[in-house]
Amino acid sequence: MYDGECNMKVVQTELNDAEYRILLEYARRSGCTIKEALREAALKLTISDSVDPNDPVFSEPPSAKRTGKQERTSAEHDKVLYGEVR
């Protein structure tokens, strides 16, 4: 989770009594402050770690046809990024 202090922004909202009690109980059970619980909730709501099954990266077939030749794309990619290992 993000724990930086630079460029922090203050946000504000209102909760009814029931919402506040639920949040307070969650924070107590989790061993965190209300501020930390709200930050965690905001991140969970806005940052998704799921994969969209309709994303073409995961749904389209390979763009290259099989040639029977063994591919070493990842190894070659690493050489470009990190240089030749000696």
Structure description:
This protein is an all-alpha fold. The protein has a domain at 1-48. It is 48% helix and 0% strand. The chain contains 4 helices and no strands. The chain has helices at residues 17-30, 34-46, 56-59, 73-82.
Features:
mainly alpha, 86 residues
Distance between the termini: 37 Å
Rg: 23 Å
Strand residues, percent: under 5%
The ordered string of helix (H) and strand (E) elements is HHHH
The tally of strands reads 0
Q: Could you say which structural class the secondary elements and strand pairing correspond to?
A: mainly alpha
Please provide a brief summary of the model.
The protein contains four helices and no strands.
Secondary structure topology:
Elements: H1 17-30, H2 34-46, H3 56-59, H4 73-82
